[in-house]
Write a structure and sequence with these properties.
The complex is a heterodimer of chains A (113) and B (115). With 113 residues, chain A is mostly beta strands. Chain A has no helices and eleven strands. In chain A, a hairpin with a 3-residue loop joins β4 and β5. Chain A is globular. The N and C termini of chain A lie far apart (36 Å). Chain B contains no helices and twelve strands. The chains are: A mainly beta (113), B mainly beta (115). Chains A and B meet through β4, β5, β9 and β10 of A and β5, β6, β10 and β11 of B.
């Protein structure tokens, strides 16, 4: 079945550690996105990529990094520079056209101890 | 810049009654509009979208939405609510006048259907 796989679903991190969240899609989509969700704040865009080897900062990119070496994969690294990393992270992909809806993974919940 | 507003944080409706979840938008060009639903600790699921054409759009699980250009609104509706419709609903917009494919989401409306 086609879809988006995020891992891990739950992750605990100590302060000062970097952590990488995985996102893989087999929908043959060109565009991929990372959103952060906090209660009452909706979804905020961290980074997005419209094509392999290219990505752009979203609204809250500080303290995060990404790579897009393969069409299927768009990992997100939460660095120690991110001051409040505890959140629910959602990866999505789309066909890359203006009319295409986003398809979401099941999310990764990161908790910093 | 594109933006979306969902004026109600929470909507309560009795099972069997019609439901409406409100959404208004602001864009520089023409809007592409989307509705998503999220169940607890899950990803978002696509419900429906408006691209062009008929202002009334039908989607999954019996939901529909009406595009109103003069009021810049895209309210989500369902004729008869089910308890299983209880979830968090997000409206989103993409601006055809913008250069990117970014989708901007509202803050979400929690729908509670009371048995």
């Amino acid at each position: 079945d086609g879809g988006i796989t995020q891992s891990p679903k739950y992750l605990f991190r100590k302060e000062g550690q970097n952590v990488t969240l995985s996102c893989e899609q087999n929908l043959n989509h060109d565009a991929m996105y990372w959103y952060r969700q906090d209660p009452g704040q909706g979804l905020r865009l961290i980074y997005y990529s419209q094509i392999v080897n290219d990505f752009q900062k979203g609204d809250i990119a500080e303290g995060y990094s990404v790579s897009r070496e393969k069409k299927e994969s768009f990992p997100l690294t939460v660095t120690s520079a991110q001051k409040n990393p505890t959140a629910f992270y959602l990866c999505a992909s789309s066909s890359g056209t203006h009319t295409g809806e986003l398809f979401f993974g099941e999310g990764s919940r990161l908790t910093v101890l | 810049a594109q933006s979306v507003a969902q004026p109600e944080d929470q909507v309560n409706v009795a099972e069997g009654n019609p439901l409406t979840v409100k959404c208004t938008y602001s864009v520089s060009g023409n809007p592409y509009l989307f509705w998503y639903v999220q169940y607890p600790n899950r990803g978002l699921q696509f419900l429906l979208k408006y691209i062009t054409g008929d202002n009334l759009v039908k989607g999954s699980y019996g939901f529909e939405a009406e595009f109103n250009k003069s009021q810049t609104s895209f309210h989500l509706k369902k004729p008869s609510a089910l308890v299983s419709d209880s979830a968090l609903y997000f409206c989103a917009v993409r601006d055809t006048g913008a250069g990117s494919y970014q989708l901007t989401f509202g803050k979400g409306t929690k729908l509670s259907v009371i048995p």
